[in-house]
Amino acid sequence: MTAIVKLENVFQHIGGRCVLEDITLRIEGGESFALLGPNGAGKTLLLRLIMGLDRPSAGHIEILGKDFAHVSPAEMIRLRHAIGMVIQGGSLLNGLSVMENLILPLRASGFSTERMQRTARLIMTQLRLDGLENMRPYELSGGLARKVELARALICRPLLLLWDELLDGLDPASVGEIVEHLQREKKTYNMALIFSTHQTGGALTIADRIGVLERGRLLFAGSQQGLEAAERRDLELRFALKGRL
Amino acid sequence: MSYMAFKLTEENRCCTRRLENIGLALLVLRDCVQLYGNILLGRSRLDLKVFVDDLREAGLSILFRLTVVAIIVGLVIGVQTENVLGEVNVPGLLLGSVGLAIIKHFAPLLVGLFVAGRSGIALAVRIGSMVLNREADGLIVNGINPIHYTVGPMLLAMLLMSFALAVWTDLIVLATAALWLWLQAGIPWSLFQDSLRDMLDAGDLLISVVKPLVFALLVALIAAVNGCRVSREVESVSRAASRTMISAIAAMQLANLLFVFAFAG
């Protein structure tokens, strides 16, 4: 299988403090990987490194077979269109309407405005966002804004979706809808999904593998069953998960 | 750590930060040039909606106030010249010098100050808010260079508008001063015109239009650097705005001085 994400001995230092320590991870196409861990464990940071928003202090990161450190700016833009990301706290542009925000990633595609809007309307319907086209992001509720962000992240049919704090701020009905939608996308487009979460219920049902981060260290990476077994053996892991739960 | 060692470390940090800022400004400039090149080659499109908004912000929004200030400056110059004209015997030389000062120094600086106060601060706040609200991250993850989205159209608007505003300010200040001198001292417009023609050459006119463009470029780069430097604190946005204004004034004065030395002949 092809590795969509490959991290080898990744370290990240901020202000002289080691915030990510020796992370080695491999995510395959179509796989979904949940990152668990308490606040400040380094989940957001790890997702930002995978997206190329930050550079690691040491180690090697390969996304879709390309090393971010050695790609040209033009190639970087192409790569970013193959990766969707939902950022914690929201990153919609308040100066633009929902529709304008949605077609933002398509602007480099050279499509006509009509075609871009048609694509956006299609995904809006799939995520039950119809009627919000002309609204501004600050006029939306937190949950709706998250759904719009997801729609924007999925509009280019990415090969990899990164979601910081999956399902955060969403009502149970929306959680069901989104989980179902993500599963469909995974199956249809072989999309890999990496998400961080505090929740165990709905979110973990879509995870093929789980990783546990604690103080910048990846304590565990494996299946849910493996996690339960490891939790019984490993005291540190048990404490890390207790902090989460 | 001793006081001296601490002081040295602080100075080094300041120096490094300044070098970083220069590097960042050069990167911003490179990205803008790249965007304009791509637009000319048909590989990129200029966001017309953003560009029109920026044109309004960089030009039309300050036009009225700039005109009022230009009239005031013209009146002050007219009154001062009228007073001096009674004491000197070479009115042509005096009128020519006044005109030269207006066209080469006054008008470009006045336009530069207005552009820094309006567009420069607006740009720094816009970039800063985008960094603060993670909108900049949103652009990056969607494959859009935030500099192309913010500074690119604004710099172009500032360059175009600075040129137009400089010509407009020249005309208003000169016309007001000339009108005052004609009404109060009976100096005919033709004398003013002849003196200007004798004193000004093509090089002076070129400097008068190039200077506002250089000032606009400096203001935009300073605003972009300060905007990019915004941290996760809300206060850092206002700090970026005030730093932009102060640094822009200092940079424009320095550039003006360099122009004077470079084209003294």
Question: What topology emerges from the helices and strands here?
Answer:
The complex is a heterodimer of chains A (245) and B (265).
Chain A lengths: L2 E12 L2 E12 L3 E5 L6 H9 L6 E6 L2 E2 L5 H9 L1 E4 L11 H6 L9 H14 L15 H13 L5 E4 L8 H18 L2 E6 L3 H4 L4 E6 L2 E6 L1 H10 L1 H10 L1
Parallel strand pairs in A: 3-8, 3-9, 6-7, 7-8
Antiparallel strand pairs in A: 1-2, 1-4, 4-5, 9-10
Helix pairs in contact in A: 8-9
Chain B lengths: L2 H38 L7 H38 L5 H42 L2 H7 L4 H4 L1 H35 L3 H11 L2 H27 L6 H28 L3
Helix pairs in contact in B: 1-8, 2-3, 2-6, 3-6, 3-7, 3-8, 3-9, 6-8, 8-9
Number of domains of chain A: 2
The overall pLDDT average of chain B reads 87
Number of helices of chain B: 9
Query: What is the CATH level 1 assignment of the largest domain in chain A?
Result: Alpha Beta
CATH superfamily of the largest domain in chain A: P-loop containing nucleotide triphosphate hydrolases
Walk me through what this model shows.
The complex is a heterodimer of chains A (about 240) and B (about 260). Chain A has about 240 residues and is of the alpha/beta class. Helix content of chain A is about 40%, strand content about 25%. Chain A has two domains: about 5-80 and about 160-245, Rossmann fold (3-Layer(aba) Sandwich), CATH 3.40.50.300; about 95-155, no CATH class. Chain A has helices at about 45-50, 75-80, 100-105, 115-125, 140-155, 170-190, 200-205, 225-235, 235-245, and strands at about 5-15, 15-30, 30-35, 60-65, 65, 85, 160-165, 190-195, 210-215, 215-220. Chain A starts with a strand and ends with a helix. The model of chain A has no long low-confidence stretch (mean pLDDT about 85). Chain B has one domain (about 45-260). The radius of gyration of chain B is 22 Å and the shape is elongated.
